[in-house]
Amino acid sequence: MLPKGNVKAHIADWLKGLPALRNSGILNPNAKPMLPRPIILPQIRYPKYEEKEDPNIIKAHAPDLTRPYKGLKDVLENNRKWANASSLREIKFFEILNKGQNPKLFWIGCSDSRVVPETIAQLGFGQIFVHRNIANQFNANDFNCMSELEFAVNNIKVEHIIVCGHTKCVGVMNACNDHLSPNLKAWLSDIRRVRDKYPELFPDRMTESSLSQSEKDKLHRKLVEVNVSNQVSKIASNEVVQEAWKDKERKLAIHGWVFNMENGYLEDISVTIGKQ
Ligand SMILES: [Zn+2]
After folding, report:
1. 173 alpha carbon – ligand 1 mean position (Å)
2. Which of 172, 187, 192, 207 is the most buried (most CB within 10 A)?
3. Could you read off the pLDDT of 163-210 as tens digits, one per residue?
4. Does the keyword Lyase apply (predicted)?
5. Which residues are registered as beta bridge partners of 163?
6. What structural domains does the chain harbor?
7. pLDDT tens for residues 209-238?
């Protein structure tokens, strides 16, 4: 049980401990550097984004929420309407797509249907190479994860790898549920290991009635950040990235971001590692 009065202190401790945890190996005790002496690059701090209102841009990109899903036939019809749109034909859009891709970003995000990278980042076709899975995990034992990392770094030569978590992440919230299927338990084992270290800070304790909703949200948000930070750390120590960093000229940085479901803002949680 988490005593109500200590929640703020726990969150403060958690915040202070993030960089230390990231480097300590506590979050992933089984992770071993792939090289005898891994290259550890300094963290990069970016200037904060300056908030400014621009109603024209917001209006231009507002998604059409009035169009409900009506079945697969409707999906195919929508596709034809879009593909045949005169505005796309005029700029020879599909000729451009046919020429190939050269994205600078490799995005590792959650499979959640509400977190659509191209939309929330306002980037388009050919601009983000994307890998998505439940709770935005990087798993070096997963052929899918590893082949995408290799392709992104060695073939496409992306300059940024972004691990993007999000608030209200059901995968993160339920990672420690004992009733998960064996596959989900295995997939979310990183988060379960954090629970073993800090059991009082986990979502399965968030049902504790002495906590306010705002306190539960803060704990969940911290867990989302720790999860992102952990994945950034694992990618940085992976052989593919380590090899790329041996090239002194190579620009490659790994970033941790969180998408806030409440207001749509992407936030850099300041755990960037790499060269730019
Ligand atoms: Zn999620």
Report:
1. 9
2. 172
3. 999 999 999 988 878 889 999 999 999 888 887 777 766 655 555 567
4. yes
5. 108, 256
6. 4-30+102-275 (3.40.1050.10), 68-100 (no CATH)
7. 677 888 888 888 888 998 999 999 999 999
